[in-house]
Request: fold
Amino acid sequence: MHDTPDPGDRGDAVCVVGAGASGLAAIKNLRELGFAVDCYERETSVGGAWNWRHDRSPVYAGTHLISSRPLTEFPDFPMPDTWPDYPHHRQVLDYLERYAKHFRLGDDIWFGMEVSSVEPAGDGRWDVTIRSTGGESSRVQRYAAVVVANGHNWSPLTPSIPGEFTGEVMHAGAYKDPARLRGRKVLVVGGGNTGCDIAVEAAQQATRVWHSTRRGYWYAPKYLFGRPADQVNDRLLRWRVPLRLRQWLYRRVLRLTTGDLTRYGLPEPDHRPYESHPVVNSQLPYYLGHGRIEPVPDVARYDGAGVVLTDGSRIEPDLVITATGYRPRFDFLAPELLEADEDGRPDLHLHAFARRHPTLAVIGLLQPDAGLFPLAHWQSVAVARWLRLRATDPARAAAVQQKESARPLESWSRRRVVPSQRHWFEVDHVAYLRAVEGLLSEMEGVR
Amino acid sequence: MSTGFAGPELVRFADWTDPVPPAAREVVSRLPDDDRENPPLLFVPGLGHGAWAFAEHWLGHAAGRGFPAYAVSPRPGGDLRARVHDVVQVAASLPRRTVLLGHGVGALVVARALGRYPARAAVLVAPVLDGWAALGSAVRANPSGTLPALFGGRLRLSARQLFAGAAPEGVLDRLGAGSRPRPELLTRAALPRPVGAPPVLVAGSPDDRVVRRPALDRAAARYGGAPLLFPGMGHDLMLETGWTEPIDAILDWLAKELPAPGL
Reply:
């Protein structure tokens, strides 16, 4: 295929790391611009986080989308319009498998192969070390570019809680089946979407449920006025309603529909609406109102058979589930390649392009207020065009890079957020897509 | 670099806030006996026609040449957006990247769908891409059937308009059942740039009384080519007595454009 002397040199080919939703979109969109692609996937099937068979998949039996179907599907491969507003995770996997099959992406994926290191080889090229998962054998291949799509919801972030606990503790990533909760006293730690989902499942199964959150959040319902809430919210964005007015409307609507959650003992949010990642759960207030979920403050320490909370009270759960999120990990890349700080937070243009390495990009490292797939799609379209432009017209590529470096950070990255690791990659989907649209228009005509 | 196409549409408020509701879709298919890994063909009929117009001859012929062939009827009362939605839904439901083939107004639907779905290839047969030109031709060829439709009446297509000679038996009774031209056919909104850069063929007849030669040339030029012409035929190439010639030429073109089957 490639006229190169060294079998390990893949010439102009691009290496894609991971065959989850973002990796699949990257393969397809790179190939559409004529790139040869080698994708390495440590598992033996596609779907990444959405494939419940994968040991690193965070999905649990009851996982449904929290963004509605039109805001979640790939823009050039819609989900069946007969599917529900919020498909189940198995439908999402089915969708990704059909996407891979429709575009014959499997031809370019090496399953059971893990990327163990990616090192610059000079001249913008990369030496990628690949080894079979769990095996000893490894080889090095040289690529013209590397597109990282290894996901950021697989390495559990566990809180360091002092003391000893004699009961069972598990991270939400290991929680799959609500049967685990049946007949037990359960403490769920974390007020994110997963924490709320598990608290609700516990309310249906367990004998007693405590839900510990560090702060008050804005819990949005899944439906407003009979429509998926994200579709209603996008109507406001469509009309270009200013943020302050949207925040006011948000408070009004929430007060009129869900009502005042402090009545159940939840703390008041310490931030405005749209300043934290949306937590979408219609059932949490319902079970709070039925006394099936008891809200409690943050955990202070473990104490033998009990857990001491920051208000000094002590509870005695059988099972503690920490739904405290995941952290991004790029073990195969030196931190400076992604300009990561000491906390491991990468600094990338549009959360995608390595600032000093024009042939290195990350796809899907975003926390949008909508589905991720459309954003990953357009990111990978932009990456593919960028790589093509750089190869065919370096002068114009340099001009584009110059122009992009002047793009204000606040135009695409949500800056006013609760300062926590949860919000490192928080973006507003419309603002973000407009920024990518701007980049694409600078590269118009590249094919 | 500007080719008269609209740029990619990243922000899609219409779809996000007001998605096209699902509808039962009539899809007719003829499949080859053995899978030769050819891409599926999806035919999209124009105004007054349904999937039947392709089921008559072309679907079976394409299947005979090894292509899984499908046609989707317009949903009753559906606007242009709903028709584009239906075409993309059907295309995405097929196991491989699909070739989209539209006839008349169906070609306009395909041209719009090309901005939404990376088709393997596309064929625009007697395409009505410019509603005003088509309207002018239609008024000249069939004033009594066309003018009432402009004022909310029913569109009545005539044999003289659609066929070079006499209309085939039984076809006229099936034409135009309940169809009313939609006002959006007369907008001159820019067509989207096809995603995935598929090869696009424009085919038609210089003797077509709906889409005339200059309109064919303009349509082909837009997609960077010249039209494939079938002189002596009318607008409804798939129903004319000489229907084999255009479909064979289209399938030959496809075979040439898609050297590796299915890729």
